[in-house]
## 1
Amino acid sequence: MKKQTGFTMIELMITIALGLVVVAAALMMLFSGQKNVALQKSSASLQDDQNFGLAYIAKNVRQANLFTPSAEVKAGTRYAGIVFNAENLDSNLMLVSDFKTKYVTQASNASNMKVKGTTSATNNDQLVVQYRPAEAGYDCEGKVIGPTTYVVERYFVRTDTNGGRSADERAALACASSHYSGSLTAAQDLETGTNGIYGSGQILMQRVDLFKVRFLTQSGAGTASSPYTYRYMTAAEYKTAADAAVTTTPVGNTPRILAIQLGVIARAVDPTTESSVTTTQEFNLFGQTFVQKEGFPSRYIRTPIVQTIALRNALGDRS
């Protein structure tokens, strides 16, 4: 009778163990690959959202000072392309009582980021621009505008009213706009209540943790004794200088603005469990280091992006 052969119990157990090791390794590679794909997809989606959002904003901001009487963009100049105070608007416009504290270019509401080494949240900036379009078109809210109308657009961060997440997670960059005639001969309201630039506006970019603005400024007379000097000033620094100039007699002078830089730190759509994405990420923006403030929920992929916009309508000596 022929002897039968086969696996012993020990051999079978070793085979099963080796098989489980191979399966476990394959599953780990699969999960790791899926996680990497998800991270790359989130990063790509975030960059696409940022590039699209900032490109749309830049298109409108680039029109600042278009067809205004003076090429100088500065606080106190009538119809200037960036609004820092009521003196930049038509003198016949009637404004709300808190206009200069809420609806001009300045550091505004608290953000989801803080400057490294501090405990309190830093401020988002608010940018208010003004221009007169060359032809009929649409403003940042999609409202129809005409070539004889001055357009005022306010870019700011607010909470998106849609969505079920926390208010911090629903921070978004929005734009609200107003129009007024370019030849006012009598007092007129720049809209009232919650209309126009006083309203909640249209969301342009979601999941924004920080929105910062700074200006390339020019000082001096351009002579041998007073040559031009150039420096970047934050929205807060320029607003402080503008407010100080308005209180002097005669009214003081502020630097001329030649370009605007917009900086944004935004988040991906969904949080991640990837350990490399920490809750203390550091980002450099305009020479400062920002980190996520304490208590912000979950881990998110974040990316800073900066756009520099030369104000072609602010060059030369038009008057």
Note: The radius of gyration is 27 Å.
## 2
Amino acid sequence: MQKKIQTTYLSYRGGRIFNGIMDDLLAKGMANATNAILSEGSAGGLAVILHCDRFTSRLSPSARVKCLSDSAYFLHDEYLMGDKLFDITFEGLIELQGSAPMLPSSCLEKQIKPSLCFFPQYILQGIMTPLFLIMSSFDRVQQLCELKIMVMD
């Protein structure tokens, strides 16, 4: 008797969720907003960086829009992260979720690999909306990076 293999199909719909939430909020009055801010922390803070201009484009051209990203500045630097943990993670996101089309074209046009567009140092110069970055010295990931630097020195 052969064992039946169970297959699971995964769907990632972050872009659709973003658009659905925006549609709902715009219908509830956000279309008339004169001021708006998009803010989140950690992985969500990275999403703020990635979607800041997309958020702005959904609002009235007269709206004053700002974005605030907290604890999401992951550096692409072999000296800090010699194990390339973030490279592997972000390449996996591109491969598994097919997320490259949701990345800002201003970054994709300049980078060899789409996964580099998950690193703020490569994407920030293309963002048109005012974006504020906060990086806590108590961020666990940053503490581990700092620890590696101190050990290497």
Note: The beta strands are 35-41, 64-70, 131-134.
## 3
Amino acid sequence: MNQDQFFLYGQQNHIQLKAERASYYLQGEIIEAFSENNEVYYLFFYKSQFLTAAKATRLRRNSFIEHAFKKGMVFESPHPLINVLLTSNQPCQIISLKPLLKKLEVNYSPQEKAHILTFFESFVPKKQLFEEMISIFYEYRRNGQRYLGYRIIQILMDFAPKHSLVKQLAKDPMANKYASLYNEGSEKLFEKDLIFAEKTLYSQKDNEQKFNLLIAHLELESRWSDLIAMFMYKLILTPSTDYYNPLKKTLEQHLNENETVYILEQLSCQLPNFLPLQQDLFNEYVKENRLEEIFTMMNKYDFKLSNDQIETFENMLQQLDLNAHSLQPDRLNQLLSPLIDLIPEKAELLLNKYVSSLLKNYDLTYIGEWLAPFKENHQTLEVFKRIDTMKKLSDDLDQMQTLGELYYEFKHLDKAIECFSWEMELKPNEPKPIQWISKVYRDKGMNTESDAYRQLCINLQKRA
């Protein structure tokens, strides 16, 4: 099963879903997923911990879920941050409101419970949610905990601002002193009411000071996936190493190399001119032997290989099998040129290797043209002389033996056999081409054929 496919478990059955996208918004994360019948489900998380899921019929306007996908940081599937939510919360199981309320009471504070209930406005009657939330307020008021009660009023003012009871409570003289404190938005208040603090800082995250306070808050709560999402948002908005360096550090701490590269690749499409990112991505491509991407970035950004990378790259090219790789010869030519200039002592070895591979699919004229750009700086290489000689001999039936031996040097065994066969036909009393055919078949692992030609050579020599 792909990473974006998973099972959602109900009381009596399970549903296979495919994640479509996810939103990171305030303390919540929501995954939108589709069933095989194209039914829509939403999975709800609080600070990356799974809560429950619900099948969507319709979504209320101005609900938390609508705000999440409009104002939150949205990632299309497949994405490592979606995978993290799913893999760290298996199995994901649908639970109804009553057991969800018990779950919230056990695991979260009453204020967090009230805040989390606002997530479900499109799936649970708003009146029922309101009653649960207002009961928390009344519990605080009975206990004389007026400030804690006012924190619930703050949540209700977002959830049901037009409700007559909410308006009444907000205007209560006892609430006025807290209201002014909230209106000021002091940092001391942020320490007391973290839900309000995060909402306020998130809404002002484009401000540098507020952004730094939000990052400090997320770090304090060890919410690394939110940190990644926030740094990505800020980096796209304002490309800078101030955001890129902590993003990269967080990625490397919490995601594997493939996941990190995936996110860097996505960012690179949005930030094509941000060189620190492109350079890191280039270095990753060298480590992963991704020739096409290396070639593209060397041409686009004029990136140079370090001494260590040159050695890695050289080994990569020596092991490259052109027959199993989609790299086109002209692309390979452009890729080899700067490398051979850097390590001229390996030029003969590398060019011989690729000429051997190219000969399987291209004629000698094409090979000569392919080699031409290398001649300017490396005129004395034997590979040029051999290919030039082969071009001259290719139409000379009197030189089939020499041509066959040159093809053999390039490990083009079938073509070598063809040349030696011509030589044997033209010179039926000459044992040399027969000996070569036997040798080449032996190299090909065709021992029966090799033995037959060896015996033919023995018989010929006996008759001589």
Note: The radius of gyration is 35 Å.
## 4
Amino acid sequence: MTYDNFPAQLDFTRDIWSVSRLNRELSAVLQGSFPLLWVQGEVSNLARPASGHLYFSLKDQAAQLRCVMFRNKRLLASVTPSNGQQWLVRARLGFYEPRGDCQLIIEHAEPAGEGALRLALEALKKRLAAAGLFDAASKRALPRWPRQIGLITSASGAALHDVLTVLGRRWPLTPLLIYPAQVQGEGAAATLVAALECAAARADCDLLILARGGGSFEDLMAFNDEALVRAIHAVRIPIITGIGHEVDISLADLAADQRAATPSAAAECATPAQQEVRTRLLALHTRLTATTQARLQQARRLLTNSERHLRLLHPQVRLQQQTQRLDHLEQRLRQALERVLERRRQPLQPLQQRLIGAEQRRIERGRQRLIEASAALDARSPLATLARGYALVTQTDGRILTRQQQIQPGDTVKIRLADGQLRARVEARLSEE
């Protein structure tokens, strides 16, 4: 390469993409713009290389699209497509960068007729689930010891024989009441609903089994009926489904309180095994016997010990011992009190003499003070004053007269003398001399 081959002026404003870069961008746009898709078409150009992958095209009247189904997804498929078949695939859109091809990366593939039916079934399943018909919180507990079991199935099907065989082997004590119903074909769902409603109305069973043998996807469509699912959810009696189809789980299985893979498995879920119960009872009997014997031995030992203690601790013996002990304590208490009193009495004798002397002197002083007070009181007594020649003059209402202006001539007054009282009438008021 020489510099003569370059253009005279280079345009650095152009964004020139390589093919690889463009394919990478296309791949990112396609894979991020579309969700998982359901696509239906005719299979053609099918190739099965040694890698285990499948390569084919899906086409209709106007177009076709390349498809790839990787080995891990192909191994999960129940059937393999072939040229000329109509198939329904669930896939994501991809882009094969080396060749620049748009393609479908298959996640799931099935024949188109069954696929449409499965799509409708999936939509019904989502709607019923949203309505709460499959909620675990609404599931009823199965009785541990059913009194009577109701079986809803075909009267001529293999499911009836399987259930009878298992019940006879595991727990023949429980009666089985059969509610015959059609389990396949047109009208089967209606007969199943009618049998279920009949069992609910009679209420003579505390457990129901809804069962049928295996079959194809179409054979089991009666157990995907909406009316049957709602009837199962509405019945208050616990229900076990035993629909013999391992691949597909019916809507009835989802609505039931418990699902079993087969009718025989449903019968096993419904009843305890008599051999296990017998073994358990024998074990409990052994434990009960051993425990009872141990308790009896313990009770005997306790009784023997109690008798020995009662003999040693007879009430009369205990009473005599307590009486002697009480006499001894009483004697000790009396002696102790006498000693205490004697000790306290000795230092109190001088104090007693002193107290008596002090009290006599206090009484004598009080007597002298009383004599002196009496003499003073007599000296100040109004009676003593009256005895010296004085008189106490009062009006008739008891008011003492101290001035002559308090009385008028003609008024009556009282005169108190030392030896009595006088009543006098005032004739005149005399002036002071």
Note: The chain is about 45% helix and 20% strand.
